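May I ask you to comment on the folded chain given beneath this request?
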Amino acid sequence: MTALTCLSKATLEAINTLGHWLADNDSGVPPAQQEADLIVLAGNAVLPTIEFAYDFAKQSGRPLLISGGIGHSTHYLQALISRHSRYHSLMVNGLSEAAILKDIAVKFWAIPAEQIIAETASANCGQNAQFTRAKLDRLNLAPLNVLLIQDPTMQRRTRATFARVWQDAQVKPRWLSFSGMLPTLERQGDGIGFAGSPSGVWPLERYISLICGEIPRLRDDADGYGPNGRDFIVHVDIPDEVMAAWHLLQDDKRLTQILVGRALT
């Protein structure tokens, strides 16, 4: 039983408002297979997102570029694969996120190795974009329509980061955004869980902590990642209802105590 059962209906609604916006799923449905010239999967540890990328690549036959070296999500991905009922036989220790995810794609999803481009050096979202562009430039590839797939908590920032890195390009791709899932918290009996009970996702407290940490990054002010701050991303308009939801979560003392308690354990 998680301490989150004490959260109010308003707090749950605010979590879902913020989480749905961050997931940045274009039109609420995946793009048609023919819309994407290239699929980019940024390394993460959210299984529904990863498997959506595999399925899209398998069905469409489009090139799949997997970007991810060793970063803050690597040990979560390694733990996820090590305990997975199907993938656990893979060796993951010491491997980059892209190497792990490519192994799964080839060995378990029968995606041809030649369909996959692996970028194994990036350690964060900014480098995912920078090193992906460098890899495509070396291969003389200039896709016009790119499907970005990332951990839903980072999906909107990822699109803004890729747009920033391609800002000076003569040919700027159209960035299609779909994270493969729309995380929604709901009351389930005496507890709280994700709707549909998906496997291979975040512990609840980690998910909430991640989404709360995104708004300061996305703000276009002196402390944010936008052009008026660190200039890592293009300007992002944050809707009033999203900011209101974020402020509600910041002001919820019970939630703050739970998240602080999680950080200390």
